[in-house]
Backbone:
């Protein structure tokens, strides 16, 4: 390699490095993120309301009688307001200008609350993650996904396209309404479960409580439930135009009404009705033109 | 009592009146039983709607009432606002908190539209229901479609992910309304399909109410 070649190569390397550094600088946010922290002492069973347009809201519990809110603001065009009124704390993100992009209005929250807290979260996009909170929980999203881990209480989730994952959710009622977000319920321990969606898949995998009532309904998509041989339930699956697939190993006994076999729902092109063991829990599955799949746990 | 008379009596029935003639007719007529079942279901669902939503602006109520009056769906404005003694529409909503009715006001449209559709349906002939001829022909779809047009104009202003979600949601629900209408038209006696149709209308109303509540609907 002659000297000219070495000089050319060094020059090329410098230009490359400069180009990379420029790219990194251009990709970095124009305004650095801001972190805001607030703490509030609370009484038993506080109520926390969160309103956020875009961002991730994480709520976890601790043993203190205190609520900690850490907000990460993506830009100076948005602010966080947290106020305590009685035993209720309102946490709200505000846009400070009209023309703000979704990225600029992003606020991520990490909120730590006492275990027994009532929580109401409303966000448009982003995500909600809640772990080990044992109060009534209400979530309302447009496109944000909702993930609940080991929570308990009266739980309501309404979303347009966000997915919902509930792992070991417990308590009285669990209600989920969605247009297109998929719903997965893993080992739920709720006495009443209602899932009503339009095009979503619904997966239920867990034990059916003997006193439980379970209603899973969609227009299209897959509804899948997994049954144990030991479950005691009275199941009714109906499809207006869709399909029903049941595990041939399932040994259901016909349900009777006044000594005669129960009729399927009027208008159902396909039905699967019967009892497992003594038929304690009530399970209603319904689809318009989707597929209902009833599996037996291996 | 004939079906037409029963449909005219439906308001009193929903308020708890049980005339012997009407009761006999209900026992004999599956169509009118279906009407009552549907109205009860809508009424029950309306009670749950919007419980967590803030109160809509007063102009919503004013505009809604004006629109319903203009279209002849309601004739006595006071019946909508005051207590249960003023009619079953009001009775239906007496248990719904006055706030939070961004959803319930659309429910009112649904119920009003449903009653109009039923009243205009000779002998419960679903195939002849104007509401089922096309998505835009009946009171309910017309109201919903009008609201949707305003929504679609305003959607572009919001967060792209949210806008996409609303657009997709509306398209999905519209598609299912059309599918359910077709099924009900082809199989008028299909109770399950009818349930799904009303559910789809409710979903669309809820979706629009959600957008209204989030300020997506254009002025």
Residues:
């Amino acid at each position: 390699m002659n000297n000219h070649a070495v000089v050319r190569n060094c020059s090329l390397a410098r230009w490359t490095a400069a180009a990379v550094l420029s790219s990194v600088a251009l990709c970095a946010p124009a305004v650095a993120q801001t972190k805001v922290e607030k703490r509030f002492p609370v009484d038993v069973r506080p109520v926390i309301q969160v309103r956020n347009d875009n961002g991730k809201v994480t709520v976890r519990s601790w043993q203190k009688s205190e609520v900690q809110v850490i907000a990460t603001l993506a830009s100076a065009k948005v602010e966080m307001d947290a106020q305590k009124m009685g035993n209720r704390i309102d946490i709200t993100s505000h846009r400070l200008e009209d023309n703000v992009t979704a990225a600029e209005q992003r606020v991520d929250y990490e909120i730590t609350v006492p275990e027994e807290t009532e929580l109401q979260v409303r966000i448009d996009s982003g995500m909600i993650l809640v772990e080990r909170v044992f109060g009534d929980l209400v979530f309302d999203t447009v496109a944000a996904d909702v993930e609940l881990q080991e929570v308990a209480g009266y739980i309501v989730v309404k979303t347009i396209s966000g997915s919902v994952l509930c792992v070991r959710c417990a308590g009285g009622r669990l209600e989920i309404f969605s247009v297109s977000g998929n719903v997965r319920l893993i080992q739920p321990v709720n006495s009443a479960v209602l899932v009503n969606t339009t095009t979503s898949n619904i997966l239920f995998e867990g034990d059916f409580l003997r006193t439980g009532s379970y209603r899973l309904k969609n227009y299209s998509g897959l509804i899948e439930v997994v049954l144990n041989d030991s479950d005691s339930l009275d199941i009714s699956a109906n499809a207006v135009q869709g399909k029903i697939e049941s595990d041939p190993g399932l040994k259901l006994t016909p349900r009777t009404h006044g000594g005669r076999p129960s009729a399927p729902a009027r208008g159902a092109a396909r039905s699967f009705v019967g009892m497992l063991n003594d038929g304690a829990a009530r399970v209603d599955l319904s689809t318009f033109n989707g597929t209902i799949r009833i599996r037996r746990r291996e | 009592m004939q079906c037409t008379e029963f449909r005219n009596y439906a308001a009193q029935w929903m308020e708890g009146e049980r005339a012997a003639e009407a009761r006999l007719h209900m026992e004999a007529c599956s169509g009118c039983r279906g009407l009552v079942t549907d109205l009860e279901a809508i009424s029950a669902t309306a009670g749950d709607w919007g419980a967590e939503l803030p109160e809509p602006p007063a102009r919503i109520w004013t505009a809604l009432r004006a629109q319903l009056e203009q279209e002849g769906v309601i004739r006595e404005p006071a019946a909508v606002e005051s207590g249960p003694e003023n009619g079953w529409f009001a009775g239906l909503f007496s248990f719904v908190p006055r706030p939070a009715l961004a959803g319930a006001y659309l429910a009112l449209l649904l119920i009003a539209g449903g009653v109009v559709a039923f009243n205009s349906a000779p002998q419960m002939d679903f195939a002849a229901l104007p509401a089922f001829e096309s998505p835009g022909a009946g009171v309910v779809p017309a109201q919903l479609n009008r609201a949707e047009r305003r929504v679609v104009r305003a959607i572009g202003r919001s967060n792209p992910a949210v806008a996409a979600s609303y657009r997709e949601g509306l398209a999905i629900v519209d598609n299912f309304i059309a599918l359910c209408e077709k099924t009900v038209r082809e199989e008028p006696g299909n109770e399950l399909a009818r349930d799904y149709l009303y559910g789809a209308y409710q979903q669309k109303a809820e979706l629009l109410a959600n957008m209204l509540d989030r300020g997506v609907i254009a002025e």
Observations:
- Chain B touches chain A at residues 52, 158-162, 164-166, 168-169, 172-173, 176, 179-180, 183, 187, 189-194, 196, 199-200, 203, 206-207, 210, 214 (CB under 8 Å).
- Residues 49-57, 73-103, 112-137 of chain B have pLDDT under 50 and may be disordered.
- Chain B has ten helices and no strands.
